[in-house]
Amino acid sequence: MENILSIKNLSKKFGGLIAIDNFSIDLERGQIVGIVGDNGAGKSTLIKMISGVYKPSNGEIFFKGNRIDILGPAKRRDLGIEVIYQDLSLADNLNTYVNIFMGREKKKKFLGFIDILDEKYMEEESKKILSMLSISIPSLKEEVALLSGGQRQSIAIARTIYWDAELLIMDEPTAALGVEETGKVYSLIRKLKEEGVTIIIISHNINEIYNVVDRFVILKNGKLISNCKKSKTSIDSVISMIVSGKEA
Ligand SMILES: Nc1ncnc2c1ncn2[C@@H]1O[C@H](COP(=O)(O)OP(=O)(O)O)[C@@H](O)[C@H]1O
Ligand SMILES: [Mg+2]
Question: Is 110 near ligand 1, meaning CB less than 6 Å away?
Answer without folding.
Answer: no
